[in-house]
């Protein structure tokens, strides 16, 4: 693959997947500007690793891993540190998701500890298996299950009851 | 009623505006690739670049800091490359092979078949890493490990892998794989941060000690002029001890180069116009400072 071919295939992939990946970054960090920064970081790393990543067909997984790690790293910086709460106010949510509910759910998602948030995003938004989520996050499957359980419990006030059990 | 995925999807919403321009991403990617190539720690890697049958070891650490004639493989039996990625190939499955000079554990024969020195085992092999005719190979022998990238006219190798700059074979291949089809030398405009230098024997040489007490570099031929030179410039231990080095600005015809030299007979030239255009270098002192920086960063330095 010549350099131009390398860039062509890279651009094709990024063009096709960038909007989706922006949303993944946003789901992880909660801010569109930071999401674009995170994605930029991830796509630059992807550029360097492109021949290998493309060969293995794991482009999305590679970018997600970078996004998750970068977002968690950022959250650990003192000026970024969040103060997650263990409990969210319970609220009956029988109505279909409205813009207001959507923002509440999103706020609740952002209030989760970073790894719990990433687990919920990968498992319950993107639909990854427990094993794949564990592999992408570099944690055990048991930890994925416990994070998922706690994360959904924390979101329960903003998710529709029939779906959360 | 929406399931959790749908609710989350709605909550996350869509981006309020267009994504940043992709050109910026690509430009940063190119710069990152260039930086990555240069991030190998001093003395930690032994990299050999083989072009046109001539080997050039760019790190003194491997004991191969001079060029050598290409080995002959006329009677060697080749092991054909297998589709990538492959499982390790026990070396004892390969036919008996003749040995060859140098530390390189593998070579390609004229037909492109992989030759492996006895005692070495191929642990990873990736065909067409950068297009047809290219190949990446990792080989081990006991504690020793070597990485190779073969192209049509160039081989890049790390003879003492893993280096401090590259922890894994995949990482090394990511960075160096795209290089193996590129032309070397200063004039090709490698936007990804490639090496600016090229081996040149036709410009200067060290003044032979048995002929003169003078020290330094002298023109190889009457059509070459040494415009300026610094004897024993400190280019860093990854290049060579200071006492074994030289640097010069030379002119031949209507072209000029900066040259760094290492005894006994390694000369790396960078065209002055390329040095100015790409790096803002306008004199020999500036070039020496640039070379010091490159070799301090390790890796290939100017090559």
UniProtKB/TrEMBL annotation, chain A:
Domain called RNA polymerase sigma factor 70 region 4 type: residue spans: 104-155
Organism, as annotated: Nocardioides humilatus
Protein name per Swiss-Prot or TrEMBL: SigE family RNA polymerase sigma factor
Region (Disordered): 77-101
Family: Belongs to the sigma-70 factor family. ECF subfamily.
InterPro entries, sorted: RNA_pol_sigma-70-like, RNA_pol_sigma-70_dom, RNA_pol_sigma-E_actinobac, RNA_pol_sigma70_r2, RNA_pol_sigma70_r4_t2, RNA_pol_sigma_r2, RNA_pol_sigma_r3/r4-like, WH-like_DNA-bd_sf
Keywords, in A-Z order: DNA-binding, Sigma factor, Transcription, Transcription regulation
Keyword Ribosomal protein: no
Molecular function, one GO term: sigma factor activity
GO biological process: DNA-templated transcription initiation
Residue span, RNA polymerase sigma-70 region domain: 16-80
From TrEMBL, chain B:
Annotated TM spans: 38-58
Keyword annotations from UniProtKB, A to Z: Membrane, Transmembrane, Transmembrane helix
Record region (Disordered): 59-100
Superkingdom of this protein's organism: Bacteria
Protein name in UniProt: Uncharacterized protein
Organism: Nocardioides humilatus
């Amino acid at each position: 693959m010549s350099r131009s071919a390398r860039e062509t295939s890279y651009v094709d992939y990024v063009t096709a997947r960038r909007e989706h990946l922006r949303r993944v970054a946003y789901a992880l960090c909660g801010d569109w500007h930071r999401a674009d920064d995170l994605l930029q970081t991830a796509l630059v790393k992807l550029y360097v690793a492109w021949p290998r990543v493309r060969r293995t067909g794991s482009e999305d997984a590679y970018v997600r891993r970078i996004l998750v790690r970068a977002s968690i790293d950022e959250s650990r910086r003192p000026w970024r540190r969040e103060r997650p709460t263990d409990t969210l106010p319970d609220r009956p949510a029988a109505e279909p998701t409205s813009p207001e509910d959507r923002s509440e759910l999103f706020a609740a998602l952002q209030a989760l500890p970073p790894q719990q948030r990433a687990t919920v995003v990968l498992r319950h938004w993107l639909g990854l298996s427990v094993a794949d989520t564990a592999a992408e996050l570099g944690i055990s499957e048991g930890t994925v299950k416990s994070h998922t359980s706690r994360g959904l419990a924390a979101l329960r006030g903003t998710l529709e009851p029939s779906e959360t059990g | 009623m929406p399931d959790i995925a749908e609710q989350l999807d709605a909550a996350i919403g869509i981006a309020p505006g267009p994504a940043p321009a992709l050109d910026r991403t690509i430009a940063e990617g190119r710069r990152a690739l260039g930086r990555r190539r240069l991030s190998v720690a001093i003395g930690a890697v032994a990299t050999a670049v083989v072009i046109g049958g001539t080997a050039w070891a760019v790190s003194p650490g491997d004991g191969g800091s001079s060029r050598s004639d290409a080995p002959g493989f006329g009677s060697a039996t080749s092991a054909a490359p297998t589709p990538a990625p492959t499982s390790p190939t026990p070396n004892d499955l390969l036919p008996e092979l003749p040995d060859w000079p140098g530390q390189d554990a593998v070579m390609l024969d004229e037909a492109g078949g992989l030759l492996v020195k006895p005692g070495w085992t191929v642990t990873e092999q990736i065909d067409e890493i950068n297009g047809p005719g290219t190949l990446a190979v990792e080989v081990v022998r006991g504690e020793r490990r070597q990485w190779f990238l073969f192209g049509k006219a160039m081989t890049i190798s790390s003879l003492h892998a893993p280096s401090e700059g590259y922890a894994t074979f995949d990482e090394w291949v990511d960075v160096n794989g795209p290089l193996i089809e590129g032309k070397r030398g200063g004039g090709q405009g490698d936007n990804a941060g490639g090496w600016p230098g090229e081996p040149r024997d036709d410009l200067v040489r060290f003044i032979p000690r048995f002929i003169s007490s003078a020290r330094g570099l002298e023109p190889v031929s009457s059509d070459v002029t040494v415009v300026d030179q610094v004897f024993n410039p400190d280019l860093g231990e990854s290049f060579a001890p200071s006492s074994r080095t030289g640097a010069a600005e030379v002119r031949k015809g209507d072209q000029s180069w900066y040259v760094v030299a290492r005894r006994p007979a390694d000369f790396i030239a960078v065209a002055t116009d390329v040095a100015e255009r790409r790096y803002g270098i306008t004199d020999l002192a500036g070039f020496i400072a640039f070379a010091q920086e490159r070799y301090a960063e390790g890796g290939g330095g100017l090559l």
